[in-house]
Design a protein that fits this description.
The protein is of the alpha/beta class and about 250 residues long. The chain has a single domain, classed as Class I glutamine amidotransferase (GATase) domain (Rossmann fold, 3-Layer(aba) Sandwich), CATH 3.40.50.880. A hairpin with a 7-residue loop joins strand 7 and strand 8. Helix 2 crosses helix 3 and helix 4 crosses helix 6.
């Protein structure tokens, strides 16, 4: 009998914040590893959030310009929080990126608030000592330059392990339990998605006194290295999905 193939649910919140290189990792793996199919839901286009995770072996929640605390304005965020809570109860792998990491932290009871200053563009990340023992981050170099675009930050949820920080933000990545990961910065980005973000949110850049041209120039310096780091982390997370115990 052929084993069933796991499927991922991925939630997008904006047209320019895509799976990017996460999609590549879902199709990668060691010799003989199966590709992991995924279903993308776009609530910003009016698509309905599934009522449960019965048909899915893992959950990816991507970034977006809204805040966790804007649930009255964006009611689908409440539905996403319920899905995250369900995935946590069932110990299904979770990957939250930017807004997704904030939603994961909130579902775990941590506060999500506006940061002291928006962190946009290319800034260094430092891995904590705890990252050395982590199955996703353990073999990575201790410091690298990552791509950021966020104004909100989260506290570390109770029982979670902080994995990374930046000069401006105390918690840039964390793990809860075996396979729930939140990452505030962006490793999934491509040259195309960065250009799209710079163009789409150009008014925000102007307000913050930042130059989109400089962000694009620095992409040429840092993106290749960041994509290699992201490929390693995302591929290892995909392996958690492949080995996730079946109900």
């Amino acid at each position: 009998m052929t084993a069933s193939v796991p499927k991922i649910l991925a939630i997008r919140h904006h047209r320019c914040e895509t799976l990017g290189t996460i999609a590549d990792a879902l199709g990668a793996g060691g010799s003989g590893a199966r590709k992991i199919p995924y279903e993308v839901v776009r609530p910003f286009d009016g698509q309905a959030i599934p009522g449960g995770l019965e048909d899915f072996r893992g959950l990816i929640v991507l970034g977006g310009p809204m805040g966790v605390y804007e649930q009255d304005r964006h009611p689908f965020l409440r539905q996403e929080l319920r899905l995250i809570e369900e995935a946590l109860r069932q110990d299904k792998p979770i990957l939250g990126v930017c807004l997704g990491s904030q939603l994961l932290a909130s579902a775990l009871g941590a506060p999500v608030t506006k940061g002291r200053k928006k962190e946009i563009g290319w800034h260094p990340i430092t891995l904590r000592q705890s990252a050395r023992l982590d199955p996703l981050w353990g073999e990575l170099e201790p410091s690298f330059v990552a791509y950021h675009w966020h104004g909100d930050v989260f506290g570390l949820p109770s029982g979670s392990v902080s994995l990374a920080s930046s000069e401006l933000t105390a918690h840039q990545a964390f793990r809860h339990g075996r396979s729930a990961y939140g990452v505030l910065f962006h490793m999934e980005v491509t040259e195309e998605s960065i250009r799209d973000m710079v163009e789409t949110f150009r008014d925000e850049l102007k307000t913050e006194g930042l130059e989109g041209r400089e962000i694009l120039r620095q992409s040429g310096e840092h993106l290749t290295r960041l994509r290699g780091i992201g490929r390693s982390v995302f591929t290892r997370w995909a392996e958690l999905v492949r080995t996730e115990p079946r109900a």
